[in-house]
Specification:
Elements (H helix, E strand, L loop, with lengths): L18 H10 L3 H14 L3 E4 L1 H15 L28 H7 L30 H10 L5 H12 L11 H8 L3 H12 L11 H7 L9 H9 L1 H5 L3 H8 L3 H12 L21 E6 L2 E6 L6 E4 L1 H8 L6 H38 L1 H6 L9 H8 L3 H7 L4 E4 L2 E4 L7 E3 L5 E3 H13 L9 H10 L6 H11 L4 H4 L3 H4 L9
Parallel strand pairs: 2-5
Antiparallel strand pairs: 1-4, 2-3, 5-6, 7-8
Helix pairs in contact: 1-15, 5-6, 6-8, 7-8, 10-13, 12-13, 15-17, 17-18, 19-21, 20-21
């Protein structure tokens, strides 16, 4: 077969994600705080878009907003969600600028420039205070330690190699090689830092950390020091008999030592957590009025956007504009209108999804976690007539405030576990049952995973032992051997297994 060069013309159809459609899909999966940042960024980059103050809206504007954000119906002029119906490759919509400009009502006179408004600086008491971190706390003590210049450099490098828990993650040899000093000099400075607050800081492992926290010298409580030095593994496995045999002490003495060690802090640096707390601001509020649930979209703090009257007035007189200026304004006006429509579409889609979740999970909202039903993205997608990917995006990072508490929208989507009568129960409900079984067990004889599975079977929940072990690990519940409590510690006490 001879090889030859040939030209062929082939006509194919492909889906192209336009930049506007990518923006609409991006807005769907943004959380409320991320949406607020995105709006502020667009306000800075698009001169045609501006924020409307509440005082400027007037009664007519507020009524129009209430109509816009009212509960959306499913008939009439509803638009498909971004990414629906395969419209990714559709033609970009062309705006009728003349009709658009005729419908606009200018709220203020045309002004080219606004006078510069000089604002006062915020009060000093409103400024954020600098947060004390573990490293800054240790550096403050290092400067007060009256060390020579070389020792201070060694101390700075040691503090710089501490992890958030306060452990040293570099060896003495590595620090000595880095600064070209003798290892014994590093050891000397390390011992000095280990005497700083918090107690146990700059340790190289858990054993050294606990030894640094001994209330006095090792010879004051030799059993306590010996358990920390040689039997941490047996202590973690609650193998008290092995400890007693090796140290030739009674079990009561081992129990006393284990209780003392339990009061030590294995993470001395945790008190100086440098991570900022993550605040949850619900996107949807759910309130029960009578026998029905009312959905309230959280609009607090979200700017109301509008088209700048300056550029609208400029487009009313296109003869005064150059071709480049007119194209510039129309381009940004097109982007601004699409951005506003995308935000409205996001809120409308979020409302429909929340409404669908309420229909599926009303028993949970009325009675609590035990009535949580299995639910999949496909079920909600079929209910609201959208694609699964749209449901996944709109429920990512969104929270809803319900009478049962604040939940991530993803929380309502969970797998089902078969029951004896053919029904299904949500996996989260099974986890709650396991938690309750563990909390009510006898701490002297904790239940094994198989015994927990047998108890669940008595409640018509069919679950394997390995599934119990998986759910127990997800709940942070220890195994039965590590949950066991000594008999002498459990008499006359109100027990609560370690979770």
């Amino acid at each position: 077969m001879a090889l030859e060069i040939r030209q062929n013309l082939k006509l194919t159809q492909t889906l192209i994600m336009t930049q506007k459609l990518q923006q609409a899909i991006k807005l769907l999966q943004l959380s409320r705080m991320e949406l607020l940042d995105e709006i502020h960024q667009v306000l800075e980059t698009n001169p045609v878009l501006e924020e409307q103050n509440y005082e400027e809206r007037g009664e007519e504007g507020r009524e129009r907003e209430e109509e816009t954000w009212a509960a959306p119906g499913r008939e009439g002029e509803e638009e498909a969600a971004p990414g629906e119906n395969g419209d990714a490759g559709g033609k970009t919509e062309e705006w009728d600028w003349d009709a658009f400009l005729k419908d606009q009502t200018l709220t203020s006179d045309f002004r080219e420039f606004r006078e510069y408004e000089e604002r006062e600086a915020p009060p000093y008491e409103n400024l954020n205070a600098q947060k004390t971190t573990l490293k800054s706390h240790l550096m403050w003590q290092l400067r007060l330690a009256d060390l020579d210049e070389e020792s201070e450099k060694i101390g700075i490098l040691i503090i710089g190699n501490l992890d958030p828990d306060g452990y040293l993650r570099a060896t003495v040899e590595e620090i000595a090689q880095e600064l070209e000093v003798a290892p014994n000099r590093v050891e000397e400075v390390l011992r000095t830092i280990q005497g700083f607050d918090p107690v146990g800081v700059a340790a190289r492992d858990l054993r050294e950390c606990l030894l640094l926290q001994l209330p006095g010298r090792k010879d004051e409580d030799p059993v306590l020091a010996a358990v920390i030095d040689r039997h941490l593994t047996n202590l973690a496995n609650r193998n008290y008999q092995a400890i007693a045999r090796d140290l030739k002490v009674s079990l009561e003495e081992v129990y006393r030592v284990s209780e003392a060690i339990a009061r030590f802090n294995p993470r001395p640096g945790s008190a100086f957590d440098s991570e900022d707390p993550a605040y949850i601001n619900p996107d949807v509020y759910l309130q029960k009025v009578g026998d029905e649930y009312v959905i309230i979209m959280n609009e607090d703090g979200l700017p109301k956007l509008r088209i700048s009257s300056f550029y609208l007035e400029a487009l009313r007189h296109p003869e005064k504009l150059s071709e480049a200026a007119r194209g510039y304004i129309q381009k940004h006006l097109d982007n601004a209108l699409w951005f506003i429509r995308s935000i409205h579409q996001r809120q409308r889609t979020l409302y429909l999804v929340a409404e669908s979740i309420i229909r599926f999970q009303q028993d949970f909202l009325d009675h609590g976690l035990a009535q949580l039903r299995p639910l999949t993205l496909r079920q909600v997608a079929e209910d609201v007539q959208m694609h699964e990917s749209t449901i996944s995006r709109v429920t990512t990072g969104k929270y809803i405030h319900t009478p049962q508490g604040v939940f991530d929208l993803k929380y309502f989507f969970n797998s089902g576990i078969n029951m004896a009568l053919g029904d299904q129960i949500a996996s989260e409900s099974v986890k709650e049952k396991i938690r309750q079984i563990v909390q009510t067990e006898n701490p002297e004889q904790p239940l094994s995973d198989q015994e927990i599975a047998d108890k669940l079977r008595q409640d018509n929940v069919i679950i394997a032992r390995r599934t119990v072990a998986k759910y127990r690990g997800m709940l942070g519940v220890l195994s039965s051997s590590k949950r066991k409590r000594p008999a002498h510690r459990s008499k006359g006490a109100n027990h609560r297994p370690a979770l």
